[in-house]
Amino acid sequence: MKKILYSFLLLSSAFLFGQKNPAAKFAVANDIVGTVNMFKDKPDFIQSMHVYKTPATLPQNLKKFSYIAENGITEFKIKKGYENLDRITLAQLNTQNDLPKETPVIIEGYEFTNTDTPIYADILAKTEVKDYNGKKSLFITTTQK
Length: 145
Description:
By secondary structure, this protein is α+β, with helices and mostly antiparallel strands. It has one domain (2-141). The chain has helices spanning 2-18, 36-40, 90-96, and strands at residues 26-29, 32-35, 46-52, 73-78, 87-89, 105-107, 110-112, 118-120, 126-132, 135-141. A hairpin with a 2-residue loop joins strand 9 (126-132) and strand 10 (135-141). The N and C termini lie far apart (37 Å).
């Protein structure tokens, strides 16, 4: 009986940690991942924006982000002179958290396997190291709770 209960608890926690946040609205600007909310706080920086509602509608330059576009993705063009927003690669974040740099990072339940992917530092509301598929991984939450 204890084995069954333990198995159930283990499986339940895996589902809870692995759930994608449907409220997460990802955005991309200059091949750097951010969130729509992050850019809403910076209207002076935005030259233009375009919303793609499904992965199938993504242009060629955004196809590499199709794994985070199941709820749509917004592409922002940033005005000249405002391109220097703080950014960091997922590999650098892993290193800062004493993880191997090639370890996939989970952002709002979405697994980022390419750790060379840069993200805007403004989306880092909460970071924590948790067990994911039997391996320590970095989990990032983009909104304050």
